[in-house]
């Protein structure tokens, strides 16, 4: 699980790259999610992330396993920040290395989408006029049809 | 003894991170009913996912002493 971790301290994408770089890799695709100041015109002062840490760590590792089932030559590292984040701080960092570029792009995209489905981490928005724990961030399907599917119950 | 964990909005509504429930032959649904009776969180529980011992589970799961049940509100990581 050392490639999958949650951190109260700032994270950098280089930490993830260092865990997946290897001679067999010809491509490393990276993704970082950062704290956004404006969402539909509303100003965020800072964010706060909480998690069910042991389960979230396991679910991140599970995403890595899913990626290796789909792209067997992939190596994955994912770090997610916890606690208070100022605007533009890194919330999540993902690095995927593969022999060729196509799989690395696809797998890094897969990782962030799965994080938003199954990893028990929550974001609290702090605005000038209040706070709110946010729910479903996929914004494409209703929560009822999302959730863990039958195959997720393992 | 079964430990019940709350997160995010649920944790704020309940006012604590966890509660202990003592009873035998409970299902997750029974825990939901108990919590909904004690706290004003029925709607939040209805939309929560369920984890038992850190794995996603369903509401019909029968619990045994020592199990840890977590209510997982819609997640918003990333």
Number of E-state strands of chain A: 9
Question: CATH architecture of chain A, please?
Answer: Alpha-Beta Complex
Radius of gyration of chain B: 11 Å
Radius of gyration of chain A: 16 Å
Contiguous helical run count of chain A: 3
List keywords for this structure.
heterodimer, A: 154 residues, alpha+beta, Aldehyde Oxidoreductase, domain 3, five-stranded antiparallel beta sheet, four-stranded mixed beta sheet, 29% helix, 36% strand, B: 78 residues, globular
Structure commentary:
The complex is a heterodimer of chains A (154) and B (78). With 154 residues, chain A is an alpha+beta fold. Chain A has helices spanning 13-20, 53-70, 101-118; strands spanning 4-7, 27-34, 38-39, 42-51, 75-81, 83-86, 90-98, 121-127, 130-133. In chain A, the strands form 2 sheets. In chain A, strands 3, 4, 6, 8 and 9 form a 5-stranded antiparallel sheet that branches. A 4-stranded mixed sheet of chain A has the order 1-5-7-2. Chain B is built from 3 helices and 5 strands. Chain B has helices spanning 8-14, 28-38, 42-47; strands at 2-5, 18-21, 49-52, 55-57, 68-72. A 5-stranded mixed sheet of chain B has the order 2-1-5-3-4. In chain B, 41% of the residues are buried.
Summarize the structure.
The complex is a heterodimer of chains A (154) and B (78). Chain A is 29% helix and 36% strand. Chain A has 154 residues and is of the alpha+beta class.
């Amino acid at each position: 699980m050392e490639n999958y971790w949650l951190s109260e301290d700032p994270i950098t994408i280089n930490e993830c790259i260092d865990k997946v770089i290897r001679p067999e890799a010809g491509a490393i695709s990276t993704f970082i999610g950062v704290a956004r100041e404006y969402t539909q015109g509303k100003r965020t002062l800072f964010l706060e992330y909480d998690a069910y840490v042991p389960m979230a760590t396991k679910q991140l590792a599970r995403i890595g396993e899913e990626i290796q089932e789909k792209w067997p030559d992939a190596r994955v590292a994912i770090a997610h920040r916890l606690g208070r984040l100022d605007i533009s701080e890194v919330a999540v960092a993902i690095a995927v290395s593969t022999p060729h570029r196509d799989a690395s792009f696809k797998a890094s995209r897969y990782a962030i989408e799965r994080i938003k489905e199954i990893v028990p981490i929550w974001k609290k928005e702090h605005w000038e006029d209040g706070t709110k724990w946010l729910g479903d961030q996929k914004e494409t399907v209703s929560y009822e049809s999302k959730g863990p599917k039958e195959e997720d119950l393992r | 003894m079964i430990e019940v964990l709350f997160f995010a909005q649920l944790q704020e509504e309940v006012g604590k991170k966890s509660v202990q429930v003592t009873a035998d032959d409970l299902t997750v649904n029974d825990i939901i009913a108990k919590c909904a009776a004690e706290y004003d969180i029925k709607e939040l529980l209805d939309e929560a996912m369920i984890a038992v011992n850190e794995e996603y589970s369903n509401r019909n799961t029968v619990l045994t002493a020592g199990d840890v049940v977590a209510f997982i509100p819609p997640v918003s990581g990333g």
